[in-house]
């Protein structure tokens, strides 16, 4: 009797193991999952592996060694690294300060302040640069007022040059540092701080000796992320640095491609792209080698806020003033320039006009740019939504030896400078027959923004109970059918949210578009940049203002819906 029972038991265990891996690649060809995995790998090979492989091959040729020792390239490389590192340090320090004050103290008005300080994160950096140019232009209100007060004959404040580049890069990257550090602060177990309090430590000592050491990895991660992002920015160095001959690698590549000063720019561009690729990968590897934050479990009692006492109103006043100067005044200056007929015209009710907005929206170039940007953004959103959902499903709902490589391949472009991605597609476009067409921009968009959707669907896919897959399999569904009917269907809202973020990001993108643009395929960001470069500041400001309003509204609504969906999921789990 014992032997049959053991056989039955083993058979039952085998069935349980089979159901627990209901969406794994088992059986002949995985019952459809095998072909899904092959299709995903084929898409990633075309969109990620091929461009990066070509840029590594072309840029690492021995003949390009002379390019890397060119004085202009060396100077641009130094400017890129120094401005990116300096701005990342400033952004991380300010983001950490905001995270502590806004999330861990009893400061009044924290919710409104948090939204205001996140405004630069919702605005493209090149539009932010235009806002500061409008604010601190020689004919602007600020400089005119300071000149009248000081008796100076020239502008008192000047945003142009290396210092302005570092400052504006920091302004537009500190929200990213804040979000990373703030998330880590929320995950610090309150029980640890409570134990320190019970042991007699005060609030400040507990925070310094318990909380801060736990979030140190997040601070390092914030620094690396902002460093990589600032290393690849084009708009701010182009608008703020070039007028003072401050050249970075991104603006140098643009000059090589646009000015015709180099007979065959592709080898030089590829070599510079490899340099940026190496710098970006070195930053990511440096972050991974540092101690992780696995000790942050997020369980236990909620952390007690730091009591600011009588200083809370002083701190609140300082933060409100800072938010007004850094986040609000530049946008008001951009609005002023968009509503005035010409630069230098006094700001009066009689001079306000909507003619700039009407002219900008009805011009042929603007209409073409808007149409191209909308089509490319929608195409990238759909492609990233479908491919990102498939990648997320394979990573979270299946067990396969290639999952790690699949994860790295899908997420790697997010850690690379946008210039590298643009140069990679510039190199492979002729071979694919899409050179000087919108398709090359679309391919670069999908490569750059795929990780946004993968990140959006991970948590919803992981939260789907395995029992639902088991029920589908018991009802006769194959692994692919069970995956599609259960996990994928429940995660479609998250994929749609990620796709919306991709669309809103792509429609305002500049760094990739400016290098891949062709006649008739200019995007909205390129149109605004060209208007600014041509001296039509009022029309450029009008278009930039509209893009800012749409972007802030769209991203805010998407974030609110995502937060509401997360709260509803947690409530349902609690029940």
From TrEMBL:
Domain of life: Bacteria
Annotated stretches, region: Disordered: 1-26
Chain ranges of the ABC transmembrane type-1 domain: 77-287, 370-558
Location (main, coarse): membrane
Keywords, sorted A to Z: Cell inner membrane, Cell membrane, Membrane, Transmembrane, Transmembrane helix, Transport
Gene3D superfamilies xref list: MetI-like
Membrane topology label: Multi-pass membrane protein
Biased composition (Polar residues): 1-24
Listed transmembrane segments: 35-57, 77-100, 112-139, 159-181, 219-242, 262-285, 313-333, 374-396, 408-428, 434-454, 510-531, 543-563
Entry's localization field: Cell inner membrane; Cell membrane
Family of the protein in this entry: Belongs to the binding-protein-dependent transport system permease family.
Protein name: Iron ABC transporter permease
């Amino acid at each position: 009797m014992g032997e049959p029972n053991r056989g039955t038991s083993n058979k039952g265990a085998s069935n349980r193991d089979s159901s627990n891996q209901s969406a794994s690649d088992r059986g002949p060809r995985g019952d459809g999952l095998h072909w899904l995995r092959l299709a995903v790998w084929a898409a990633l090979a075309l969109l990620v592996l091929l461009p990066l492989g070509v840029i590594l091959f072309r840029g690492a040729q021995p003949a390009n060694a002379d390019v890397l020792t060119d004085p202009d390239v060396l100077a641009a490389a130094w400017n890129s690294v120094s401005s990116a590192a300096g701005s990342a340090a400033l952004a991380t320090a300010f983001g950490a300060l905001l995270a502590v004050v806004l999330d861990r103290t009893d400061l009044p008005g924290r919710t409104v302040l948090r939204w205001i300080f996140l405004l630069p994160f919702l605005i493209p950096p090149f539009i932010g640069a235009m806002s500061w140019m409008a604010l601190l232009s020689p004919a602007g209100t600020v400089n005119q007022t300071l000149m009248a007060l000081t008796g100076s004959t020239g502008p008192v404040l000047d945003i142009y040059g290396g210092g302005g580049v570092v400052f504006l890069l920091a302004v537009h990257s500190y929200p990213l540092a804040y979000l990373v550090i703030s998330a880590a602060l929320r995950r610090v177990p309150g029980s640890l701080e409570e134990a320190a309090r019970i042991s007699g430590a005060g609030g400040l000592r507990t925070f310094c000796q318990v909380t801060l050491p736990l979030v140190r990895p997040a601070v390092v991660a914030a620094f690396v992320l902002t460093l990589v992002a600032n290393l690849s920015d084009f708009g701010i160095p182009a608008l703020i640095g070039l007028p003072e001959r401050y050249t970075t690698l991104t603006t140098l590549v643009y000059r090589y491609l646009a000015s015709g000063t180099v007979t065959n720019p592709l080898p030089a561009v590829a070599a510079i792209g490899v340099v940026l690729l190496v710098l970006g990968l070195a930053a990511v590897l440096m972050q991974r080698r540092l101690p992780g934050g696995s000790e942050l479990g997020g369980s236990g009692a909620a952390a007690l806020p730091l009591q600011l006492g009588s200083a809370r109103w002083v701190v609140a006043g300082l933060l409100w003033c800072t938010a007004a100067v850094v986040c609000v005044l530049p946008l008001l200056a951009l609005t002023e320039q968009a509503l005035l007929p010409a630069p230098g015209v006094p700001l009066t009710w009689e001079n306000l006009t909507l003619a700039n907005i009407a002219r900008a929206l009805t011009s042929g170039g603007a209409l073409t740019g808007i149409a191209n940007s909308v089509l490319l953004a929608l195409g990238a959103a759909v492609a990233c939504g479908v491919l990102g959902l498939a990648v997320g499903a394979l990573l979270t709902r299946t067990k396969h030896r290639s999952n790690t490589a699949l994860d790295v391949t899908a997420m790697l472009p997010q850690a690379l400078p946008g210039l590298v991605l643009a140069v990679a597609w510039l190199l492979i476009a002729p071979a694919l027959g899409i050179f000087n067409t919108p398709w090359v921009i679309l391919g670069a968009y999908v490569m750059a923004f795929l990780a946004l959707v993968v990140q959006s669907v991970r948590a919803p896919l992981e939260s789907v109970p395995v029992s639902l897959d088991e029920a589908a399999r018991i009802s006769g569904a194959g692994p692919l059918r069970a995956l599609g009917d259960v996990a994928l269907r429940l995660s479609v809202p998250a994929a749609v949210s990620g796709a919306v973020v991709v669309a809103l990001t792509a429609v305002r993108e500049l760094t990739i578009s400016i290098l891949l643009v062709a006649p008739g395929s200019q995007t909205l960001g390129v149109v605004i940049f060209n208007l600014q470069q041509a001296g039509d500041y009022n029309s450029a400001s009008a278009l930039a203002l509209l893009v800012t309003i749409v972007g802030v509204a769209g991203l805010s609504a998407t974030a609110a819906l995502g937060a509401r969906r997360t709260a509803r999921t947690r409530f349902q789990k609690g029940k």
